Amino acid sequence: MIPSQTVASLPPLTPEEAEHSRRVEAAIRQRIAEAGGWIDFETFMNLALYAPGLGYYSAGAAKFGRAGDFVTAPEISPLFSRCVARQCEECLEALGGGEILELGPGTGRMASTVLSALAERDALPERYAILEVSADLRARQKEEIARLPARLRARVTWLERWPDEPFRGVVLANEVLDALACRRFVLHSRPARHVSQLGVSAGGVSQLGVGVGPDGTLREAEGPADPELRDAVSRLIAELPEMLPEGYRSELSLRVAPWIASLSEVLARGVVLLFDYGLPRAHFYHPARRDGTLRCHFRHRAHDDPLVHVGLQDITAWVDFTRVAEAAAAAQLEVRGFATQAAFLLGTGIEALVAEPVSAADRARVAGEARRLLLPGDMGEAFKAMALARDCDLPLAGFRHQDLRGSL
After folding, report:
1. 291, part of any domain
2. More confident residue, 135 or 88
3. CA distances to 28, 51, 181, 223, 276 from 33, in Å
């Protein structure tokens, strides 16, 4: 994981970057004014990341890789995607064929590697569909896919919305859930003045949002928690083994359930593989984690201030995998596996892939990539893999070494 840094240590902006950020801030200030002086954090995050032509994922700046702001597992090494391909092969064989649907594929690197690996194993899907709403990222993905042989390129299609027809096959989502806009809340032992009702067991629940300071800059501000958020916070607190302290701040994504429900509607039969950093609920909402999990990423620096470099930095929050499991159950999907990324990669044969290179230099390089993917201090433990399934009962290789479903 990228170590957290202070805002003061972030690289300076170019004049063009500063001007773009000013335009994004102006659009957000306008929304705040229209809303009466305050918007909740979910609205702010959605604008900062996805506002058409302005948001981080809608504008044209580099986001992934060495030239961007962060590196995902498929960018670190093809080992990750080759392991994913092995799990896809196992699922497609059990299903008697089918398609692969990748959601939010970033640069397209995983799609390219998965297709190449499946081609080598004579296990290609009928189609490899990519669901991408960003025109900028779609263009980058097409550049990546264009490097493939024609017979592989012909299997790739792009979608702007969920498939119209029932889908049979494997759905892939790497670092998608963490980018869903989330709510932020703070707990008080007594109700804040703007909170008219108490949450069950939660004392006063306020919602964190964004306002405008006297100098015109964006600033964090508390507002009333609406009934939906207040009830959600109350329910999760009632389930926790320990009380949370005064002033405890954290995140809660109310978009997970609708997202899983939409996915369930199009999945006729198959397996969904989710990869993201996150925790079961009891560990996510722990008293020691009193400032939440929100992280911003800019030029490979991680920090916790979403109100700087607005529109130029990624904003994410860790995933409450218990909420994902609950949403899956409500959508009649079965949680077939939950494990660390390291356990998933070991289960799908990363050790054999590391041993393939012939030259000493290649072996050293690949071993270094594997360490980043596997070690607890890097991605191996913080990132989790979860499998959801419908009408597909086979044991999944990626989850044979570890079963953390009991922690959910």
Report:
1. no
2. 88
3. 9, 17, 21, 15, 35
Q: How far apart are alpha carbons 328 and 273 in whole angstroms?
A: 12
**Residue 3 near residue 30 (C-beta atoms within 8 A):** no
pLDDT of residue 67 exceeding 70, the answer is no
> CB under 8 Å to 185, separation ≥6 — which residues?
205, 206, 207, 208, 225, 229, 233, 249, 250, 251, 252
Looking at the domain assignment, is residue 9 inside a domain?
no
Q: Hey, what are 337's tokens? A: 């596996």
Residue 100: domain span: 73-105+117-178+256-283+324-407
Q: Which residues contact 393 (CB under 8 A, 6 or more apart)?
A: none
Helix (H) or strand (E) holding 204: strand 204-212
Question: CATH code at 380?
Answer: 3.40.50.12710
Count of the separate structural domains present in the chain: 1
Max Cα-Cα span within the chain: 68
pTM of the predicted structure, to 2 decimals: 0.91
Mean pLDDT throughout 43-55?
A: 92
| Neighbour count for residue 403 (Cβ, 10 Å) | 12
Report yes or no on 164 lying in a domain: yes
Question: Among 260, 280, 403, which residue's Cα sits nearest to residue 336?
Answer: 403
Q: Is residue 33 part of a domain?
A: no
Contact 401, 337 (CB under 8 A): no
What's the angle, vertex CA 50, arms to CA 45 and CA 51, rounded to 5?
A: 100
